Amino acid sequence: MKWITRSDVRVDRVACPWLIRRFIDPEAEFLFVPESDLLARARETGATPFDAPRLAEVRLNHRGDRCTFEAFLEDYHLTDPALERLSLIVRAADIKGQEHVALEGLGLRAVAVGFALTGVTDSERLAGQEPMYDALYAYAARSGS
Question: Could you count the other beta carbons within 10 Å of the beta carbon of residue 55?
Answer without folding.
Answer: 15
